[in-house]
Structures are given as C-alpha cells and as structure tokens.
C-alpha cells in the first residue's frame, strides 16, 4: 500500500538514515559483525556501533512500533515496514538485537502496569538493560507448564528457588523474565506467575552450556533464595501462563522469520564454490539446490503475507507456529546444503559452515519443538480431537 | 500491494464460491463424467458462467469483457478448483491475453465472443510429451499466400470443443502465433480421453494453408507473447490447484474427525495429526505464493514471470502431496471411485503437469534466475 504521507515518511527516513547510519556498519557480509545486544555488560565492538545504537535509540527506532510515551518510535506498522525496507536498502545492521524488544516489550505493553512500562521499556529501547528469558527447566522442556522453580510468598516479596535452562546470554543479561510456580497446589497451568527478576541479586548465578557446536550463548541460571518484589509480577499472580503463551508467538516469529534473501541463497553460493561448470557436473546436487531455492522463495513470500495479515489485523493465531516449523526446517536444509557446497573447507573444525551446521539443529527444538508446534496446529488450526 | 484480499476481492471470491457450489457441485462433474457424453463440459453451465462475467475476466469492457483482472481471474479459478468445475475458463483467459497483447483490430474483434463464452479459442502450445515451449516442432513455412503449417500439437486444452486455435509454430523468423480455424483443410482433431475427463485433443496439421493475416503480432516475434500467456496460465493453474487441494484437504480433515477405529476418532492419533498439520502448513505457504503471482501480473512487476513459475512449481508439488495423503488418510475408501477424492487426485495431476510441472518450472527458474 503506498500513499502520499507514507512516501513522504520514506523520503524523510531515507535522508535520516543516509545521515545517521555509520558507514562502517553498512554493506558488511552477514555474520561479520557481532550484533549489538546492549545491557550494562555489553562491550561495543566499535565507536560506530555505539553511535548507531544511540541515534536509533533516541528516535525510538530500535522499537519502532512501541508508543512514544515509553521511548518507542510510535510508528504505524506500515511506517515500520518502510523503515525496515530503507534499512535493508543501505544494508545497515540492526542497531540492537534483544529479547527485551522481541519478547518482554510486547508482554509489558499488553499485560504490564503503567509503572512497569515506564520503568522497563525506555531502557530496553536505548539498549541500556539486557533481558534474558527464564522459561525452560531441566525437567520442563516440551511440557513447559510442569515447571518447578518455586516462588514462595513472603509478604510483599517472593523468595525464588530453582533453576532455568537455555537462558540465552544469561551471563550477559541484567534482568530475567521468568515463569515461576507460585501456587503449587493449583492445576499446573494456573499456579504459574510471570515474574521480573533482577539478576544482580546475589542469589542468581549462571553456568555456561557447551553445545555440539562448541561455546554457546546459552547458560543454566540458578536461583538461590532470590528476593523479588511482588510489584514485579506481570499480569495476574497465577496467570503467568497466559502471558507466556502470548509471548511464545513472538519467539516463534523470531525463529521462523529471517527470510533467506535470494542473493544469499545456496544457488549463488554454489556458483561461488563450484562455478557453472562444476555445478553442471553435479546434477543431483543442483536438483537439491533448486528445491531448496523454491521452498525458500515460498517461505519468504509467506513471511511477507504474514506481515500483511498482521498489518490488516487478520493474522491467524497459529500462523507463527506454522512459519516457525517451515522456517526452522528450511534453515537446517540450508546449512546442510552449505556444508555440501563448501565441501572439504567446511569440515575444518574452525569453519563458519561447520559451526552453523552444528548450531542450527537447535532451531527446530527451541521455542517449542516443531513436534509441539504440529500439535498446536492440529488442535487449534484444524480442530482435531485430543488423543 | 498487500498479500491480503481487498474487500472487493473477497466479495468476488465469495460470489464465485456460492455460484459454483450451487450451479456446479462436484456431483455435477461426476454426473457429466458418468454420462459418457462427448462434451467434457456443460454448455449450460458455461453460459451461466458467462452470465457472471467469468470468461471475460481479463478482457476490458471496451472489448465486451468485465476487466476484473488477474487476481480476480485467479480467485475464480481457485473457487472453480474447489468443485472441480470443468469449463473452458483457462483457454478463454489465454486467448484473451494473447489477442489483447498482440492481436490486430480484426483479431481483437473476436474478443467479445470470448468474453460472452460463445467463441472458444484453444491455445495449441505443446508438441512433445513434456512441456518444452523453447523447442516448437510444428513448422510454419512461408509461401506466397501466407504460411503452410505442418506438425502435431499435443494435449491442446479444450482442443476438441474449440472452433478456433492459436497455434504456436516455428517459422524461419522464429516463434510465431497463428489463428487457425479447425475447419481449415488439413487440420485434424483427435479428442483425448484424459484421467481428469477434461477436454483436450491432439491436433495435427498437414499442409494447412493459412493467410498471412492469421499471424498474431509479427512472424518470428511471438516469444514474449508465448511467455506471457504461459505465465498467466501457470498463475491461473496454481490458483485452481490451490482450490482443489484446499477442498480435498478440508474433506480429509472432516473424515479424520468422523471416522472411528479402536473406539476413537482416528484424528486423535498423533501420527495422523502431524501429517494433517504438515499438509495445512504446505497449503498456508502456498496461499501466499498464488496471490503474489496474481498480484505481480496485475502490477506488471518485473519478476512476475519468475513468480508464476515459483507458484506453479510449489502448487504442483503441494497439491500432488495433499492428494496423495488425502487418499492414504481415507484408507480403503480413498481408492474407491465412489469417493470424490479420486476425482481431485486426477485433476491435480493434469493441472500440475500443464504448462510445465514442478521439475520444468525449477529448471526454468534455474536458467532465468541463476543461469545454471
């Protein structure tokens, strides 16, 4: 949809980006620069990265669609899309990648108190506070609602004990939003509270998790008599499952999105590594590449459609589950093919391709395994009966 | 434009759906097939469709059409797919596309007849067992009077009902489109009996003399017109395939909720739930690409041709897979002729193959997008 005001906004945005996006952060190969995650412990990779975060944070464009009252950009979905397009046009890295923006923000905007919004949202926008997510536990993976981290009532506080696993950047985060069991006698979905916990509390500690890919951003996080004020409950006490479910769709979107740009697809990689003649001698490989490119193309269009549906307010609730399954499976096929196309060089233990290949199997597990998503689709989208 | 239907488009799709549900249910197609009639479509239904303005969807009002556009034509094809409507809708769209683009005034005078359904024009493109429009074997040899046509066209859609043909031939100058009346001496139409009971014919041309005025556009200059017609055909077939697959899938899900074994509904078994969920996923992904292909044609986007191939490849695969699973999930009854699923299976095979199956489209994309 194009309209005169939107085109005016595009022109302004383009001019502002041209003036404000540091040259050093434009047109860099994917993965060359560490994305800025912000927070008190973040060490900027360069002065350009710091400047870019400050400039975008000041405009609220790290969270373009959040209300201006909480530091956001106050943009309409259409304007936010224009901003994304204009950033893509100059291929500038996003200024900030944070769970605060992706996940906690939407939860607070929907369920948070006015005070919680005013306290927590602006520092997220400016990248000053980094948030971690505390959902899964060693004994609660696919069956997340069986979580056992205990929050004992202590007047105007909870005392929290237990452990969370798969905390991304747990050691680098300042706060954690966690699901805790506040009412152990209640049915399992009804005894859970969504609680904000300050990780500087001396009872919080983290331990790194080493993966098949090597070092990882994941930690296990331990809570040992951690005191958290009840003012930090998001939504109602005991109804944290509603907030968690609401948030999970954003997590699925995050995992299922990141479309494969065609120029970065495997066909172009094949041309680089094997060349036209080499590829012509590898007809079976060529066939796999073409099927991948077809499916990636379809996925990219499906993502475009889901954005349009969201903008029109008619996004089916189950579409994020669906795109998470298709997107994550595509990602795994992509890294498999990349291994084949880079061949011997990819088998080097230090290679970027080997790391990706070993890392991406996590995408079909994280955020609710794909099998769980298929359950969701069968029940919610198709109305098939419970087993 | 957004990949969401506008209100106007939704209204048109709803109107088409209720029209076909009322006037052309699957039972009507089955009855026609079982009647053994030589006609592969119902002229009465076609007249009704013409009354709705469907055959003229791509023809502007100045030429007697409704000028609905590609998205609308696709929505009509999609809804027609839901009830397996057999009609010359696709041929009419392609004839309109070619005549509007390259036809001269005399040739465009045929358009009102196409729009009101009275004139059937078939597009004779394939001349091998697999779609290969870059290697046309039917020859158009220039002589003093015009051209002599020689060769055989295979699987001409609506080829037995059509009285007029648009023949894609190779002349010395290159690919050439010619308007040929089937009554012309030397033209021989051999009606086919296809698995999906749709109208198609093999048509042979033996020393067929046509006038120079029969050429649409310029002799040797038909490449772009052929490509464009095929793009439109691929997008419309994708839409029809989506409708077919949607309907077969809906019926399958209903069956999973109704059929009991081991004392429970079979749809409560996770093994089947996950298969159904994966089909749902494939269909939702397909929905976007079909609409994108149609929107790209309406907008005249640069990549419309590529997206048409993406859509055709994706929908040929998706519809085939949905129907394969639909048969399996119905169990024994799924392979009986009594159940309509088999009718969908057959149509999906034919529509998936027409104007290039998924393998063809992937190779085409490889050549156009990456030159590999």
Structural features:
heterodimer; A: 387 residues; alpha+beta; four-stranded mixed β-sheet; four-stranded antiparallel β-sheet; B: 372 residues; two-stranded antiparallel sheet; 51% helix; 16% strand
Please give the share of residues in helix of chain A. 40-55%
Q: Pairing-aware structural class of the strands and helices of chain B?
A: alpha+beta
Beta-strand content estimate of chain A: 5-15%
Oligomer: heterodimer
Task: Please summarize the sheet with the most strands of chain B.
Answer: 8 strands, mixed
Biggest sheet details of chain A: 4 strands, mixed
Order of helices and strands of chain A: HHHHHEEEEEEEEHHHHHHH
Strand content of chain B: 15-25%
Identify the biggest protein-protein contact and residues per side.
Answer: A-B, 45 and 41 residues
Mean pLDDT of chain B: 97
What is the alpha-carbon Rg of chain A in Å?
A: 22 Å
Number of strands of chain A: 8
Give me a quick take on this structure.
Chain A contains twelve helices and eight strands.
Structure description:
The complex is a heterodimer of chains A (387) and B (372). In chain A, helix 4 (99-111) packs antiparallel against helix 6 (240-256), helix 9 packs antiparallel against helix 10 and helix 10 (319-342) runs antiparallel to helix 11. In chain A, the strands form two sheets. Chain A has a four-stranded mixed β-sheet. Chain A has a four-stranded antiparallel β-sheet with strand order 2-3-7-6, with no helix packed on it. Helix content of chain A is 44%, strand content 14%. Chain A contains twelve helices and eight strands. Chain A has helices at residues 4-20, 47-59, 77-89, 99-111, 114-125, 240-256, 266-273, 275-280, 283-311, 319-342, 352-359, 370-381; strands at residues 131-134, 150-154, 157-168, 175-181, 192-198, 204-208, 218-229, 233-234. Chain A is an alpha+beta fold and 387 residues long. In chain A, strand 2 and strand 3 (157-168) form a beta hairpin. The longest helix of chain B has 36 residues, at 223-258. In chain B, a hairpin with a 2-residue loop joins strand 9 and strand 10. Chain B has helices at residues 7-23, 26-35, 43-51, 70-82, 89-102, 105-108, 111-115, 223-258, 270-299, 304-329, 341-353, 358-370; strands spanning 121-124, 139-143, 146-157, 164-171, 174-181, 187-191, 200-211, 215-216, 260-261, 264-265. Chain B is an alpha+beta fold and 372 residues long. Chain B is globular. Chain B has twelve helices and ten strands. In chain B, strands 1, 2, 3, 4, 5, 6, 7 and 8 form an eight-stranded mixed β-sheet that branches. Chain B has a two-stranded antiparallel ribbon with strand order 9-10. The mean pLDDT of chain B is 97. The interface between A and B is large, with 45 and 41 residues.
């Amino acid at each position: 949809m194009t309209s005169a005001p939107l085109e005016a906004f595009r022109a302004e945005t383009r001019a502002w980006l041209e003036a404000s996006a540091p040259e050093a952060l434009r047109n860099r190969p994917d993965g060359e620069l560490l994305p800025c995650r912000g927070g008190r412990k973040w060490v900027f990779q360069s002065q350009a990265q710091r400047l870019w975060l400050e400039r975008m944070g000041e405009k609220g464009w790290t969270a373009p669609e959040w209300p201006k009252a909480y530091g956001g950009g106050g943009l309409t979905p259409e304007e936010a899309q224009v901003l994304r397009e204009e950033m893509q046009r100059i291929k500038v890295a996003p200024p900030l990648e944070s769970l605060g923006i992706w996940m906690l923000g939407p939860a607070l905007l929907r369920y948070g108190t006015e005070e919680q919004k005013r306290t927590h949202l602006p520092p997220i926008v400016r990248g000053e506070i980094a948030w971690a997510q505390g959902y899964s536990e060693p004994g609660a993976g696919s069956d997340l609602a069986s979580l056992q981290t205990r929050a004992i009532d202590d007047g105007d506080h909870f005392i929290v004990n237990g452990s969370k696993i798969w905390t991304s950047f747990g050691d680098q985060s300042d706060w954690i939003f966690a699901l805790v069991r506040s009412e152990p006698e209640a049915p399992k979905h009804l005894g859970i509270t969504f609680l904000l916990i300050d990780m500087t509390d001396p009872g919080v500690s983290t331990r790194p998790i080493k993966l098949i890919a090597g070092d990882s951003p994941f930690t296990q996080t331990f809570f040992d008599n951690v005191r958290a004020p009840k003012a930090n409950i998001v939504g109602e006490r005991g109804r944290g499952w509603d907030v968690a479910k609401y948030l999970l769709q954003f997590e699925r979107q995050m995992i299922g999105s990141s479309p494969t740009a065609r120029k970065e697809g495997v066909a172009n990689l094949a041309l680089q590594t094997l060349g036209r003649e080499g590829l012509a001698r590898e007809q079976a490989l060529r066939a796999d590449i073409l099927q991948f490119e077809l499916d990636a193309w379809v996925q990219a269009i499906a993502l475009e459609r889901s954005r349009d549906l969201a903008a029109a307010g008619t996004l089916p609730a189950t579409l994020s589950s669906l795109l998470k399954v298709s997107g994550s499976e595509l990602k795994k096929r992509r890294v498999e093919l990349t291994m084949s196309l880079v061949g011997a060089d990819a088998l080097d233990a230090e290679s970027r391709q080997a790391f990706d290949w070993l890392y991406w199997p996590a995408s079909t597990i994280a955020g609710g395994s794909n099998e769980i998503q298929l359950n969701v689709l069968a029940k919610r989208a198709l109305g098939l009966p419970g087993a | 434009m957004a990949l969401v239907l506008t209100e106007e488009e939704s209204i048109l799709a709803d109107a088409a759906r209720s029209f076909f549900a009322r006037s052309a249910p699957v039972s009507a197609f089955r009855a026609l097939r079982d009647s053994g009639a030589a006609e592969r479509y119902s002229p009465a239904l076609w007249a009704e469709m013409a009354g709705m303005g469907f055959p003229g969807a791509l023809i502007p009002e100045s030429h007697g059409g409704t000028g609905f556009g590609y998205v609308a034509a696709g929505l009509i094809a999609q809804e027609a797919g839901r009830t397996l409507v057999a009609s010359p809708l696709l041929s009419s769209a392609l004839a309109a596309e070619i005549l509007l683009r390259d036809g001269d005034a005399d040739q465009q005078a045929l358009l009102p007849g196409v729009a009101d359904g009275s004139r059937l024009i078939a597009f004779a493109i394939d001349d091998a067992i697999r779609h290969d429009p870059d290697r046309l074997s039917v020859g158009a040899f220039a002589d003093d009077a015009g051209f002599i046509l020689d060769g055989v066209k295979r699987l001409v859609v609506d080829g037995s009902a059509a009285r007029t043909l648009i023949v894609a031939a190779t002349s010395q100058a290159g690919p050439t489109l010619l308007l040929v009346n089937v009554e012309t001496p030397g033209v021989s139409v051999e009606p086919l009996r296809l698995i999906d009971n749709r109208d198609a014919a093999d048509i042979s041309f033996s020393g067929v003399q046509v006038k120079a005025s029969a050429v649409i556009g310029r002799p040797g200059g038909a490449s772009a017109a052929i490509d464009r017609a095929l793009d439109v055909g691929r997008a419309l077939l994708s839409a029809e395939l989506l409708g077919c697959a949607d309907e077969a899938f809906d019926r399958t899900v209903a069956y999973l909720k109704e059929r009991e074994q081991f004392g429970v509904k079979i749809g409560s078994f996770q093994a089947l739930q996950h298969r159904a969920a994966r089909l749902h996923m494939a269909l939702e992904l397909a929905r976007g690409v079909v609409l994108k292909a149609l929107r790209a044609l309406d907008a005249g986007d640069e990549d419309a041709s590529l997206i048409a191939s993406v859509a055709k490849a994706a929908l040929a695969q998706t519809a085939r897979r949905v129907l394969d699973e639909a048969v399996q999930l119905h169990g024994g009854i799924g392979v009986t002729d009594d159940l309509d699923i088999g009718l969908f299976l057959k149509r999906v095979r034919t529509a998936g193959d027409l104007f290039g199956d998924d393998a063809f489209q992937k190779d085409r994309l490889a050549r156009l997008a990456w030159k590999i």
